[in-house]
Structures are given as structure tokens and as C-alpha cells.
TrEMBL record:
EC code: 3.2.1.18
Reactions mediated catalytically: Hydrolysis of alpha-(2->3)-, alpha-(2->6)-, alpha-(2->8)- glycosidic linkages of terminal sialic acid residues in oligosaccharides, glycoproteins, glycolipids, colominic acid and synthetic substrates
Protein name (Swiss-Prot/TrEMBL): exo-alpha-sialidase
UniProt organism field: Mystacornis crossleyi
Annotated GO MF terms: exo-alpha-sialidase activity
Taxonomic lineage: Eukaryota, Metazoa, Chordata, Craniata, Vertebrata
Amino acid sequence: VGPGHGLQLLNEARSLVIPAYAYRILDPKQHPTPHAFCFISSDHGTTWEMGNFVGEESAVECQVAEVHTCGRKVLYCNARSSRGARVQAVSYNHGLDFEGGQRVETLVEPPSGCHGSVTAFPPPPDARCQDSWLLYAHPTDPRGRKDLGIYLNKSPLNPAHWTKPSILFKGLCAYSDLQYMGVGPDGSPLFSCLFEYGTHRQCEEMIFVMFTLK
């Protein structure tokens, strides 16, 4: 499971959702391939069920975010891949099934991929549309794990709407966990990010930073 945070949904059951992945033997003549999915509990963790796998695309470590769009709540999944770009999919039934598993070419991956983090948040009050926005953290260099960037998507279900990254940390870095913290002191959405970094290797130390959308 994980790494990174899970979710408590805003549905009637206040379901708990834990992103995960598993290796599947789809062809006995081939190596097992990883596929992302979610564990879901609708009774506050007493029992759990396993959701279906995210499409046909091979996907490893993933994170999910509950997105409010067009009057409905959608579970968005963003997953690691070793094929040069992230994989994203959406669920309309709280993580049991995912649709539209596809590569997002803007969200580049290093050669072996790397865990990334995603969080949904309400847009600033002056935004024309009040549907959720998404923020995503991940190393930005396609050649290796370095230069942690922050990407923004104001239309989360459209993979073409991811912005170019703003660099949060220059240098070697790896896994991260991103979280929305409410409204910041400047009135802009406030976020925190915990991530691995180092001078000689990507995971020598951990660093925690806070920043606003502005």
C-alpha cells in the first residue's frame, strides 16, 4: 500500500480509501506486471474490500484525491509508471472501478519511475468555477530523480490541462507526500510537502516545507 496518505471520502459512509498496487500474472510466459487499485472500507475500518485494477496500463505506487466536478464527487488516481509518463484514471463509485486509465505525457517519469503525490483542494474564491483543483508533486527531470516540481491542474479530469512545473526543490530528490492545509496567511490555498532529498543520493534526509498557491 501507499506510500503516502489515504483518504476519507465525503460520501454518506465516510469511506476510507487506501491506494495500493499488486503484481499480476496475466501471462504465465511473461513476468508479473504491477497494477494499481484501492482498498475501501465503508464501516470505519472494521472490514475492507479490494477494488478493481486500474485499466490495462501497468501502474505501480499511486495516490488518489476526491475531486468535486460538475456537481458530483469523483475519485482521481495518479500512478507511477516505468514508461516515461504517469498514468491517471477516475472512479465514479468511490474507488471500486476506475475508467480511462491513460498516460499523461506532461507528467514525466524518470527511467524507473518514482512515487508522486497528489491532493485536491477548493480553488480561490475569485475563481470563476468552484470545481476542485489538483496539485501534484514529483521529480521533474526525465533522466533521473531530481528537481522536485509542483504541477497544477484547474480541470483535473482533463490530462491536457496540467501546467508546467514550478520547482520546489533543486537537486536530488525522490518520494514526496503533498497535503492541502486550508487557507494560508495570504488568503491563498496553503500546502505542505514532505519529501526525500540528498546531496549524493536521493534519500539521505527528509525535508518538510509549507507554501501557498501564490
